[in-house]
Amino acid sequence: MATRTSSIVWAPVWGLALVQGAISLLWVIYNLYLGELLTSLGLPLKLATGLLIVENLLAMVMEPLMGTFSDQMQHRIGTRLPIISLGVLLSAGIFVLLPTTLLWGQGLLRWGLPLLLVAWALAMTVFRSPAMSLLGRYAVGTRLPQAASILTLVGGLAGAMGPLANQFILGLGPWVAFTAGSGVLLLAAIALGLAQPNGIASVDKASLEQASQGQDVRPAAQRSEPSADRSPWTGLALVFGAGVGVALGFRLVMTALPMAIAQRVPEGNTALVLGSLFVALALTALPAGQLAMRLGNRRAMILGLSAMAALAIAVGILSSTLVGVLLAALFGASLSLVSNGTLPFALGMVSPARAGLGTGIYFSGGALAASLGGMLLGSGGLSLTGNTLGAALAFLLAGLCVGASGRFSRS
User: Fold this and answer.
1) What is the pLDDT of residues 323-348, one digit of tens each?
2) What are phi and psi of 139, to 5 degrees?
3) How far is 403 from 8, CA to CA, in rounded Å?
4) Residue 139 forms beta bridges with which residues?
5) For the chain, what is the domain count?
6) 3-class DSSP assignment, residue 139
7) Angle, nearest 10°, between helix axes 10-40 and 144-164?
8) DSSP 3-state of 8
9) Where are the alpha helices (DSSP H) in 284-383?
10) DSSP state, 199?
11) What average pLDDT does the segment 146-151 reach?
12) What is the four-CA torsion angle of 193, 195, 198, 200, rounded to 10 degrees?
């Protein structure tokens, strides 16, 4: 029998992984078609960079707000599913509307497309932090990274579709692609809802064993007042810093790899190299989760971030497609240690009553990093050396934040 310190309720973990995969897939489709939608309506392609910057700046504020709102909802009614469901419905509905602008978006109406794009990005922030915070109610203790590895596995496979299946997705056309993406998100949300312990309510850490056996339990949020729990703001600042470092470093590496291939291996296969990163991320997710259980999540994350910093520097000496694939695969394997640990790390810095805030703060840091990355690209970008050194420094910053978090952790 599983103990209360080592339990995982697997059905909702897989449901949450499907939501994570759907989020990744929608962003893949969005990024592939964004330029085409804009130029088809006569809007400048450079507007795409500006839109992504604005969307991420808004997300930086919205993520912790929605996470906090879901914490309050958890306390009041014992579940976060209503806000998750609302966000999913809004996101799926707006997403399927985006290609319709090709029909009615003429003249001044074409500016309706940027408004819809921003509205969709905001709708995605409504449910991501509330949904991902549920992981802390499905797994406990050292098993959290193992549960998170399922999310990394599914998210990595969905992310691999960007470089490896982009021609297939583009071949579907915007109508089919956006409709399919909306359908996948809705199905994933339904699967998550059906997999909830006891129908609709999540369970607290002390009740996972009972929940896995189908017994009725009362959520911890109904037994404690969030107002009585003061969040460790220094700890949250470290979570935010880690989010900035990981996301900015990843963005710079994803810019440096194609740049290195273009400069050093003009005949190289960029899609294969980038695809190798996501495939390796997915394939090593489960072993990385096991390793984190042995080392401890904080140590595993620091190990992964250190390796990613070294590999980012190595991108600058890429000399062939084979070397690029090897570097990308090693980077993906190292990233799996970090990806598995980010949610457990954020959740460990707050009490269960503040789980949404913890995940929201981490995603807020990632949104700021995405805006910074967009600004760098919009201003002409960095050189190859600038990208690799910047990525290494960003990963080291994240590692310092994770390393300094031990005294503030509540796990």
Assistant:
1) 999 999 999 999 999 999 999 999 99
2) -150, 160
3) 26
4) 8
5) 1
6) strand
7) 30
8) strand
9) 285-295, 297-314, 321-348, 355-378
10) S
11) 96
12) -10
